[in-house]
Every structure is written in structure tokens, then in C-alpha cells.
Amino acid sequence: MNSTGVSTEAALSTEALPAEERREHDWLAAMPKCELHLHIDGSLQPARLLELAEKNAVAIPHASVADIERACEFTDLQSFLDLYYLGASVLRTEADFYHLMMDYLRMCRQQNILHAEIMVEPQTYAPFGVTLDVVMRGFVAAIDDARREWGQSVLLILSFLRHLSEDSALDLLREAQPWREHFVAIGLASAERDHPPAQFRRLYSAARELNLRLTAHAGEEGPPTFISDALDVLGVERIDHGVRAVEEASLLERLRQDQVPLTVCPLSNVRLCVVDTLQQHPILDLLEQGLCVTVNSDDPAYFGGYLNENYTALRSALGMRREQALALSRNGFHASFLGPDQRADLLARLDRYAAS
Ligand SMILES: Nc1ncnc2[nH]cnc12
Ligand SMILES: [Zn+2]
């Protein structure tokens, strides 16, 4: 059992549920979905992590899957990031990056995630001598295979680490130019406390010049002013997390008026103690107030579930109704960085599902 109150096994299986709940969970699982907030390193499953640590001779202080699962008792964002960066340190070769991406894309297929916008964080691997070319060759090969084999739709977000300097971010943005066509947007992640959006003003302005779309984590652990600064100083189009907006009525009203998408991650918020329990999560209240909220998994290997488990947990904890689930999924497609034709195509698939 984890701190969400949902064991990973139970979250992944509906067998123990009463028949009606099982039917609703199956309906949610089959619903066409979109994931906009997923750190690829956060999809590294413990078994794969251990296998890669051994293959690449990386010493880690965990000997078994159970050991890693025990380490997933987080008290805040930083306590999670310590394990997350340790996990990512075992990735070293092009094949490692291929398999990491392919494992997640297979999960997309299984969970009816028709479109995924995936954060890639090359600064994480650089201290181990892993080059951007190694990382990108592996990721792009997996995406090409998934697109060819089952038509998976994927866009990549070049995500920068805010605990590192803006100069280091600008260096990476320059280094990434040969891979420009593979990125739709930039993002900003890692430790939010003590790293306000304004520290990355030049980065966002350079990315805008390159016609990249803009998003950033804000209002996960940081205060509501980080959300308004991300909008006003960085010029982002959507906010990753943003749940601390509930503390500031005028900000909520602005987000509603301007229909700024929030990529909310319910299970993550419980695991990282952003909210105390899922029952207290504000996502459905925000939806009912007319905000453009979406459901996402953030780091599924560490937080007890992928996208379907986030949707079904909202059903179990908050009694989410079918029309609310459809509205959340629709918001996801609307808030995506897809072009209009592809977005319309995927929304039509969701509409057909709703009518079936
Ligand atoms: N929830 C999160 N917040 C900030 N940075 C992250 N990197 C991976 N997961 C994150
Ligand atoms: Zn995140």
C-alpha cells in the first residue's frame, strides 16, 4: 500500500471491485485520452532500473524492487527528486533510452493514450558523460517505431532543470538546435522552491524566438505568484500542476477567464504531499468552476499509476462521473500542442466514444 491508499497492484487490476465500479473503471480505461505532463525518467520502472544499474555497472543503494518501492515514501518534492535523479543515472546508452521510451509508448497503446507530450531532460544525464545525441537517437527511434507500428502520436518537450543555472539551460537550448524539429515546446521542472520563474526569463525569450511553444511547472510547491510570473514573465501558454492557484481567488478567476490549461497530476500531488488525500484534491471543483484542467501522471513509476490509474482513482476517491471524465479528456486534447487538424481528428474519436 502506498500513501495514495491505492496499492499498485490494486490500481492496475479491477477484479476486486464491485461489478458496477469495475464497469466504470473499464469504461475509463477504454476512453481515448491524452497525456500532457509526463517526465520520461519518471516512467522508469524499478525492475528496469535495477537491470540497467547492473548492466551499466552503476552502484545504487537499492538491491531489489521491494527496496525501491520502500524508498517511494516521499515527504515533499525534493525527497522524490533525490530518488528520481538516482534512478535516471543508470541510463547510459542509446539502447537504454530506446527501451525507456518504448516501454512508456507501449503503455500508451495499452491505456488508450492516443497522444502524449513527453518531457525529456538531457541535463540529467550530462554529468555521466551521456551526450544529447545518444539520448535523442534512442528516443526518436522508439517514437518512429511506435508511430509506424500503431500510429502513436507523440510530441517532445525539452524540459530544463531549474536547480541548474539559466546559462546551462541556454547552452542546452543551443546544443539542441540540430534536434529542433523533434521538439514542440520547452518546459521547466525540478525543485520549485527557491527557483522562481523569473530566473529563466532569457531562456523563455530565446525559445520564443525559435518558435517553440512554452510551458513550465508552477504552483506545485511554489506559491501562486509563481503561476502568475510564469504567465507574465515567461509568457507560458499552459501551466504544469498549478494546483496552488486555489489559494488565490483572483488568480483562479484569471485562469478561468483566459482558459489557461493546467496539467494536473492527482496521484503525484498526494505522493508529494501537495494535498493530504485524494479526497481533498481540487481538480473536480476546478473543472466545475470552468477552468481548463487536465489529468496526467507526471512520474507513473514512482507514484503508483499511469494515466488510467489517475482517472480511476478520481472515480474512486471523488466519485468522478462519466461526463466529468470526458470533459477532462477533451480539455487534454484542446490544451495539447497538436496542430488543428490532428487535434480535431482525436477529439472526434473521443466524441464517438462518448456517443457509443
Ligand atoms: N513533480 C515534479 N515536479 C517538478 N519536477 C519534476 N521532475 C519530475 N517530476 C517532477
Ligand atoms: Zn512534473
From TrEMBL:
Its cofactor is Zn(2+). Substrate binds at residue 299. It comes from the Bacteria. Residues 32-352 form the Adenosine deaminase domain. Its EC number is 3.5.4.2. One of its GO terms (molecular function) is adenine deaminase activity. It catalyses: adenine + H2O + H(+) = hypoxanthine + NH4(+). InterPro entries: A_deaminase_dom (IPR001365), ADE (IPR028892), Ado/ade_deaminase (IPR006330), Metal_Hydrolase (IPR032466). This is Adenine deaminase.
